[in-house]
Amino acid sequence: MDVHIIEIKTGKVAAAIPIDLTEQNRIPSEPEFFATAWRCAVEDNRVDPGRRDDYSFRLVR
């Protein structure tokens, strides 16, 4: 599963992060996918960590 992090102002995908949370014995919620993707994008310097409200998230299955 991928999470697309989209800059709201431009509508452009700032990051497409593949996420695999299937090892947990439950189905993760969308906010868990988004939090994990945001952390990865920040670590990769693909988004500004102080501007999270300027981005939207889309789960791509």
Features of this protein?
three-stranded antiparallel sheet, alpha+beta, 61 residues, globular
Give the oligomeric state of the chains in this entry, treating copies of one chain as homo and distinct chains as hetero.
single chain
In terms of DSSP E residues, the strand content is 25-35%
Quantity of strands, as a count? 3
Distance between the termini: 5 Å
Number of helices: 1
Gyration radius (Cα, Å) is: 11 Å
Biggest beta sheet attributes:
3 strands, antiparallel
The shape is: globular
The topology string of helices and strands comes to EEHE
Q: Which structural class do the helices and strands define?
A: alpha+beta
How do the strands of the widest beta sheet line up side by side?
2-1-3
Task: Please tell me the overall pLDDT.
Answer: 92
The number of distinct structural domains comes to 1
Low-confidence stretches: none
Percent of residues in helices: 10-25%
Task: Explain what this protein looks like in three dimensions.
The protein has 61 residues and is α+β, with helices and mostly antiparallel strands. The protein contains one helix and three strands, in the order ββαβ. Strands 2-1-3 form a three-stranded antiparallel beta sheet, with helices on one face. The model has no long low-confidence stretch (mean pLDDT 92).
